[in-house]
């Protein structure tokens, strides 16, 4: 009896393990039937690789590699790569911790200024390439200053003005929760050897404690963005929590996003302002604005019509956002325009392994979030920079008549491997229970 029991338990456990492994290892094959819509792709001649530049109306449908596929007419999947058209950026930077620092009255304005003078190291690359940005490390937390940038070469005696009235700001709230500093100034590329900063010192203020100066050369090329004017209106909606507690009055605006965005650009009527802003996402599932903001920062401007930008860490896909503007000194500010921006996307695929005369289709709107199992990114990276890339043209978006809802695709209970696990476990439990009851009666 004991031997038979051992054989039964061993067989049951082996069947259970094999069933579990089968259910985990069985791949889910995605086909054109999984997608609600499709777009025919037109290719003129052979191209390897081909590039599809996505129009605005498809950006909300293609959020990642799992949200689309390319198939040929026979249902064979074509490996693809989704690329965001970010600009190529390369930064060079050196830090100066030793510089001459004095205070005097400016000859042009008559105001007290804090002056910093420094020289670029002769052997540094920036001495040849020039600089177009400068960042200060400042120990102070609350300040508001303007900077004049002057420069000269070694053989020259007098400095000349390069840029003036460039603002820097630092702020920390009374609760010491939020700290904000904007101490970077940008200007056209300069190749001087000696530089001077004149930092304004307002009345009843002290000179700033400058810890170090960072000289930068920012190189940025390529990339492309889309921009969409967003509709907005004043709102009575309120989030349940603010990132910074403030007794100041607040203005609330609801925004509508037609496509995903990565940053917002605000245009205000006023030329002088400093405002703390928060942005909240709306949850369709919870029917409310989520309590924690997706972005919060200070927007400031001094005597200009420059637009202010808030950048998100991740792509924002929600159709509704709530903008909260904390009024400075309880004085409202006039919001004229909001523009949503993001980087354009393109789809790359190779046609050297398929018959290019065969029609291809871009499939969208799947009910299943299944990532592809292939990876052509390495092949794309190995291509020479001068390699010819041809454009593939998209036609009109259409309904996929082959679409079958996931509800209709569900298998019967008897064909689902996970249910077999439960059946085996139940039978094993019943058998063991009966066996132990039998032993108990003998005892």
Q: How are the elements arranged and paired?
A:
Elements: H1 2-25, E1 35-42, E2 50-53, H2 56-59, E3 68-72, E4 77-78, E5 80-84, E6 88-96, E7 100-105, E8 112-119, H3 125-129, E9 131-138, E10 143-152, E11 160-172, E12 179-182, E13 184-190, E14 194-200, E15 210-221, E16 225-229, E17 231-234, E18 250-256, E19 261-268, E20 273-283, E21 288-289, E22 295-301, E23 308-316, E24 320-326, E25 335-343, E26 345-349, E27 360-366, H4 377-382, E28 390-391, E29 393-394, E30 398-399, H5 406-409, H6 417-442
Parallel strand pairs: 2-28
Antiparallel strand pairs: 1-27, 1-29, 1-30, 2-26, 3-4, 3-27, 5-26, 6-15, 7-8, 8-14, 9-13, 9-15, 10-11, 10-14, 11-12, 16-25, 17-18, 18-24, 19-23, 19-25, 20-21, 20-22, 20-24
DSSP, total strands: 30
Structure annotation, total helices: 6
Q: End-to-end distance, in Å?
A: 16 Å
Architecture of the largest domain, according to CATH? Sandwich
State the CATH topology of the largest domain: Jelly Rolls
Principal-axis shape equals extended
What is shown here, in short?
Helix content is 16%, strand content 44%.
Describe the fold and architecture.
The chain has 4 domains: 2-27 and 410-438; 32-85 and 345-404, no CATH class; 90-221, Jelly Rolls (Sandwich), CATH 2.60.120; 225-343, Sandwich (Jelly Rolls). Helix content is 16%, strand content 44%. It is built from 6 helices and 30 strands. It has helices at residues 2-25, 56-59, 125-129, 377-382, 406-409, 417-442, and strands at 35-42, 50-53, 68-72, 77-78, 80-84, 88-96, 100-105, 112-119, 131-138, 143-152, 160-172, 179-182, 184-190, 194-200, 210-221, 225-229, 231-234, 250-256, 261-268, 273-283, 288-289, 295-301, 308-316, 320-326, 335-343, 345-349, 360-366, 390-391, 393-394, 398-399. The strands form 6 sheets. Strands 1, 3, 4, 27, 29 and 30 form a 6-stranded antiparallel beta sheet that branches. A hairpin with a 6-residue loop joins strand 11 and strand 12. Helix 1 runs antiparallel to helix 6 (417-442). The radius of gyration is 32 Å and the shape is extended.
């Amino acid at each position: 009896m004991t031997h038979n029991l051992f054989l039964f338990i061993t067989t049951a456990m082996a069947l259970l393990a094999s069933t579990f492994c089968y259910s985990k290892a069985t791949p889910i094959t995605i086909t054109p039937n999984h997608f609600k819509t499709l777009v025919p792709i037109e290719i003129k001649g052979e191209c390897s690789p081909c590039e599809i530049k996505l129009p605005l109306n498809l950006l909300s449908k293609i959020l990642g590699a799992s949200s689309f596929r390319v198939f040929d007419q026979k249902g064979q999947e074509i490996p693809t790569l989704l690329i965001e058209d970010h600009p190529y950026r390369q930064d060079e930077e050196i830090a100066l911790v030793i510089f001459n620092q004095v205070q005097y009255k400016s000859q042009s304005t008559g105001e007290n200024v804090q002056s910093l003078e420094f020289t670029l190291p002769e052997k540094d690359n920036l001495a040849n390439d020039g600089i177009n940005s400068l960042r200060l490390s400042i120990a102070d937390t609350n300040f508001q200053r303007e900077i004049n940038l002057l420069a000269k070469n070694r053989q020259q005696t007098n400095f000349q003005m390069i840029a003036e009235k460039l603002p820097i700001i630092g702020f920390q709230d009374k609760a010491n929760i939020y700290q904000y500093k904007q101490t970077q100034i940008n200007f056209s590329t300069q190749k001087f050897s000696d530089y001077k900063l004149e930092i304004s010192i307002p009345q009843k203020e002290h000179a700033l404690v400058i810890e170090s100066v960072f000289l930068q050369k920012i190189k940025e090329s390529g990339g492309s963005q889309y921009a969409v004017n967003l509709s907005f209106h004043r709102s009575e909606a309120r989030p349940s929590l603010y990132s910074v507690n403030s007794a100041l009055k607040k203005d609330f605006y609801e925004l509508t996003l037609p496509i995903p965005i990565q940053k917002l650009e605000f245009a205000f009527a006023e030329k002088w302002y400093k405002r703390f802003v928060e942005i909240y996402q709306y949850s369709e599932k919870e029917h409310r604005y989520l309590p924690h903001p997706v972005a919060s920062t200070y927007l400031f401007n001094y005597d200009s019509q420059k637009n202010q930008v808030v950048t998100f860490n991740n792509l924002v896909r929600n159709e509704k956002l709530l903008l909260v503007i904390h009024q400075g000194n309880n004085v409202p500010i006039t919001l004229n325009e909001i523009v949503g921006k993001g980087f354009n996307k393109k789809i790359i695929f190779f046609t050297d392994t398929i018959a290019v005369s065969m029609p291809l289709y871009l499939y969208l709107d799947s009910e299943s979030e299944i990532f592809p199992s292939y990876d052509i990114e390495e092949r794309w990276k190995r291509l020479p920079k001068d390699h010819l890339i041809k454009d593939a043209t998209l036609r009109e978006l259409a309904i996929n008549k082959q679409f079958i809802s996931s509800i209709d695709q569900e298998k019967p209970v008897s064909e689902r491997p996970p249910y077999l696990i439960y059946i085996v476990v139940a039978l094993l439990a019943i058998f063991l229970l009966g066996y132990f009851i039998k032993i108990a009666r003998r005892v």
